[in-house]
Amino acid sequence: MLSKKQLESLLTLAMKSKADFAEIFEEETKSESISMVNDDVEDINRTVRAGAGIRLYKGNSSVYGYTNEMDEQSLEEIINDLRDAIGKEEDGPVIVLNEKTMAENISPVEIDPFESEDEVKIGMISEAIKGARDAGEKIFKATAGLSSIHQEVQIANTEGLFKGDVRKRSRLRVSAFAKEGTNVQSSGSAPGASQGLEYFVGEHAPYKAGQEAARVAQVLLRAKKAPSGVMPVIIDNGFGGVIFHESCGHSLEATAVAKNMSVFANKKGEMIASEKVTAYDDGTMPGEWGSQNMDDEGNPQQKRVLIKDGVLTQYMVDRLNGRRMNTPSSGSGRRESYKYEPTSRMSNTFIAPGTDKKEDMFKDIKFGLYCKSMGGGSVNPNTGEFNFGVNEGYLIEDGKVTDPVIGAMLIGSGAEILKNIDMVSDNLELAQGMCGSASGSVPTNVGQPAIRVKSITVGGTDHE
């Protein structure tokens, strides 16, 4: 990492321009992944990356450059290119940084994967595969892997900020493949956290992750084609929250809001959801997958109340888009690595628990769909229109959960689904994912308790 003196010299050079702000983001990251197929270790991969990203602001515009060459000459060349782009000056302020401080660590690691023997980690992966294969004779294949990351960052800017942070995360992935005749189905489970190997005990034990992946794969073997039409839908907790994340969460990021490219732009203080809905983006939750000690602009992470009793209360804001909106940063600036300029991103985003009971949601539904777990899909962030696959779904008939179905899609818009939520349960659960956007792929949690949407379009494969 660069010294205080080096950073002051580089930032002083950056300000010999028409820029009114400059920042240097440094990163040193090591990552590791180990994968297995059935009983065989398939791959052990270890990588190291290091580099710096430099940006200059002029009003509401920015220029950005990066390099993996960390000598002062290379960094000065990047800065001079940026000065050319934004406009050079002969004079500028002399930058003096504060003394360096480290962000307070809210997610301590007890068992560091990088200090653990390969045999220990391979043993964990083997347990996940064993859990899947023990689940039934229809499981003919299982794959699993353990990935870990150790990232150190240092941020300095022309306002005097000089901060460092250390981030550590671990995630286990397991997939199970089931077969009956020519029918082959698969499913997966992928628990992870801003923790070390200590996370994978008890509730998150590898064996349990394997069992869960295999359970769903075998359910899909006996699933029938999903129906189509407009109907009530119950979306269960955990990864069901991907619907809110994709169809609503992205539309509440300043990346879209500042450009008036969001369906929720200029609607702060308005009722945009059912009064049953309160939603948060909380980067301060200790040990959670999407948490950070500080954001990637050096700002403290926050618990952001996005929606309160149906009313839009807050957007997720980064520094540059905050300038455009005349709004302070909400600690939401995130990036995949030094190769990306940060922008507003989610962290742990979820619908808060309600007071309804899950079992009561089914009682008055004549015919509908129960989505126990969601899969992938697509969304237009400008309109919030989405279509998402249902990974594990069941029919609801006369108030009871009946046959499993396959091939169901939920089709609608974020604005529509928020207003059509008429019941919110009390069984909040979070689930891990990776979110891709303008500043790369970052770890995020999605989550919710079980919710009932009184009317939504279901696209199915049963056209008889």
Write the layout of secondary structure elements.
Elements: H1 4-14, E1 21-37, E2 40-58, E3 61-67, H2 72-86, E4 101-102, H3 118-133, E5 139-157, E6 162-180, E7 183-189, E8 192-193, H4 206-221, E9 224-225, E10 229-235, H5 242-249, H6 254-257, E11 279-282, E12 303-308, E13 311-312, H7 319-325, E14 333-334, E15 343-344, E16 348-351, H8 358-361, E17 367-380, E18 385-397, E19 400-406, E20 409-413, H9 414-419, E21 421-424, E22 429-437, E23 440-448, E24 451-459
Parallel strand pairs: 4-6, 9-19, 10-17, 16-23
Antiparallel strand pairs: 1-2, 1-5, 2-3, 5-6, 6-7, 6-8, 10-24, 11-12, 11-16, 12-13, 14-15, 17-18, 18-19, 18-20, 20-24, 21-24, 22-23
Relative helix content: 10-25%
**How many DSSP H or I helices?**
9
Please indicate the percent range of residues in DSSP E strands (runs of 2 or more).
35-45%
State the shape: globular
Account of the protein in words:
Helix content is 19%, strand content 41%. The protein is α+β, with helices and mostly antiparallel strands and 464 residues long. The strands form four sheets. Strands 1, 2, 3, 4, 5, 6, 7 and 8 form an eight-stranded mixed beta sheet that branches. Strands 13-12-11-16-23-22 form a six-stranded mixed beta sheet, covered by helices on one side. Helix 1 packs parallel to helix 2 and helix 3 (118-133) packs parallel to helix 4 (206-221). The termini are far apart.
